[in-house]
Amino acid sequence: MLKMIESKVKSKLTEQHLIDSWTRMAETFDNMTNHVKIDMVGKYISLTYSYLSVVKALLHACISCSLKPHIEWIAASNLKDESEKSVYIISDFHLLESFCVIN
Questions:
Q1: Prediction pTM value
Q2: Please, are residues 44 and 74 in contact by the beta-carbon 8 Å criterion?
Q3: Separation between Cα atoms, residue 95 and residue 32, nearest integer Å
Q4: Looking at residue 57, what is its pLDDT?
Q5: Taking all residues of the chain, what is their mean pLDDT, rounded to a whole number?
Q6: What is the pLDDT, as a whole number, of residue 102?
Q7: Which Gene Ontology terms cover its molecular function (predicted)?
Q8: How confident is the model over 54-71, as pLDDT tens digits?
Q9: Contact status, residue 44 vs residue 50, Cβ threshold 8 Å
Q10: Could you tell me the end-to-end alpha-carbon distance of the chain, in angstroms, rounded to an integer?
Q11: What is the pLDDT of residue 103?
Q12: Largest CA distance in the chain
């Protein structure tokens, strides 16, 4: 009986530790003051869930850099030609690159 109680106590301590860790991380994110603007150019911007994996990856990368992401959605059809699209994307990538280097 004692071993059963002991294992439950250890389990709860582990769960509480995880909860505390997540709470600290969420509070840290909520209190971040540095932001980064990320322009997302896409064909289906009205269906933002289509880009969910990209958005989540950006969120995790920004958290690692202590930045809050602010994503602006840009319809690819609003850009004039292919050369403008590639220059826009490349220049924004270099801008983001200058904010953070992830080790």
A1: 0.58
A2: no
A3: 20
A4: 92
A5: 77
A6: 47
A7: CTP synthase activity; identical protein binding
A8: 999 999 888 888 889 998
A9: yes
A10: 48
A11: 41
A12: 73
Torsion of CA 90, 95, 100, 103, to 10 degrees: 20
Instruction: Classify burial at 30, counting beta carbons within 10 Å of its beta carbon; exposed 0-12, middle 13-18, buried 19 or more.
Output: exposed
Residue 4 has a CB neighbour count (10 Å cut-off) of: 8
Q: Which residues contact 100 (CB under 8 A, 6 or more apart)?
A: 36, 61, 62, 64, 65, 67
Residues 63-92 pLDDT 10s: 888 889 998 888 888 776 655 555 555 555
Element (H, E) at 37: strand 35-42
Phi-psi region of 69 (alpha: psi -120 to 50; beta: other; left: phi over 0): beta
Q: Element (H or E) spanning 4, and its range? A: helix 2-30
Contact 40, 48 (CB under 8 A): no
